[in-house]
Amino acid sequence: MASNGCFIGVLVARTHDHVPLCSYTDENYGSANTVRQQSQRILERMQTPASNTDRSQANGSFYQSFDHKDCIYFAFQDAATDLTIVAALNKLLLRNSGDVNGTNRLACGLLDLVFAEFTQSFSVGEFGAKHVRPFQYSKFDGAIQRCIARVLQQDRSGAGAVVGGAGGSAGRRQVNPNYEALRQELTDVHMVMRKNLEDLMTRGENLETVNSYSDQLVDHSAKYYAKTVRMNRMRLVKMYGPPAAVGLCFADILLLIFF
């Protein structure tokens, strides 16, 4: 049972080169490693203007979501800061899994709050530098957990969307002036985005399966080769061993007779 309600994982990363900056995964969730792998896969496969190599024309923010087995993944990209945030929700722990709009609001509230807290804590120049290492900001996972707790508390109290402090809210609106419109648009395109990303995930899983089969085939081929070499040696010993032994005995007898 996850200890942070329905939220079981959050990943914060740079968009253009997919470098993970920090992450949080609920270790009490049985498939924590799967959540990490799927979040990274979403980051690598998302296709929006913010993820293109040439980001000079990219602007605004983008939300996407999709189902994967017992989880729903929500992703947020912001072109101005080159950030991507992925949040994973356990469908079994949602208070009302049939309320799509409510689930969207809950997930977007967390994405927006994590974005606001992260950009308040670190500047674009800091996490956008070339020398930044993967998970260099891993200490931010404590702030992610506090964001999760705050969003869940707001959801239980029935309050509106959660946004960062006064400074964070103002900065957020400058990055995305159509904040509410984008959030509402997420509901309209929810199923289309979900299907597209599900197809991407399925293709990725199929490729991993093929690679696994290929590795197994290489291992088995090496074993069969070694076994074949041993069998050929035994066959040569059985074929030429007795005549060779007889020849050696005959040679010994001749040596004893004449020498």
Distance between the termini: 90 Å
According to CATH, what is the topology of the domain at 1-50 and 59-157 and 188-203? Beta-Lactamase
β-strand amount: 5-15%
**CATH homologous superfamily assignment of the domain at 1-50 and 59-157 and 188-203:** Longin domain
**On the 0-100 scale, what is the average pLDDT?**
76
Domain V-SNARE coiled-coil homology: 178-238
Membrane topology: Single-pass type IV membrane protein
GO cellular component, one term: cytoplasm
Keywords: Coiled coil, Membrane, Protein transport, Transmembrane, Transmembrane helix, Transport
Structure explained in plain terms:
Keywords: Coiled coil, Membrane, Protein transport, Transmembrane, Transmembrane helix, Transport. This protein has a domain of 165 residues: Longin domain (Beta-Lactamase, 2-Layer Sandwich). It is α+β, with helices and mostly antiparallel strands and 259 residues long. Helix 2 runs antiparallel to helix 4 and helix 2 crosses helix 5. The protein has a 5-stranded antiparallel beta sheet with strand order 2-1-5-4-3, sandwiched between helices. The chain contains 6 helices and 5 strands.
Record the SSE blueprint.
Layout: E1 7-14, E2 20-25, H1 32-45, E3 61-68, E4 71-78, E5 83-90, H2 100-121, H3 124-127, H4 141-157, H5 166-175, H6 179-258
Antiparallel strand pairs: 1-2, 1-5, 3-4, 4-5
Helix pairs in contact: 1-6, 2-4, 2-5
Pfam family, one: Synaptobrevin
Subcellular location: Endomembrane system
Domain V-SNARE coiled-coil homology: 178-238
Q: What's a quick, concise take on this entry?
A:
The protein is an alpha+beta fold and 259 residues long.
